[in-house]
Amino acid sequence: MSKYTPLRLHLQSQLARDVPMSFADVEAVLGFRLPNSAYRHRPWWANEAKGHVHAQCWLDAGYETA
Questions:
Q1: What is the C-alpha separation between 13 and 48, in angstroms, rounded?
Q2: How many CB atoms lie within 10 A of CB 54?
Q3: Cβ-contact 24, 43 below 8 angstroms
Q4: Percentage of the chain exceeding pLDDT 90
């Protein structure tokens, strides 16, 4: 189980096609602060699962970042 699993579970429970979330919203779901790279580097949010356990969580839930 990944530390990002709570995000996957949260997203899987959503009925909406789009689920807008702020950094604070994501952190509240996760229960910890996002890494600095999530704030500074847009590629952290890329929809690339290979080697990115955090992205795998939202992709597995059927969502992509925009």
A1: 22
A2: 20
A3: no
A4: 98
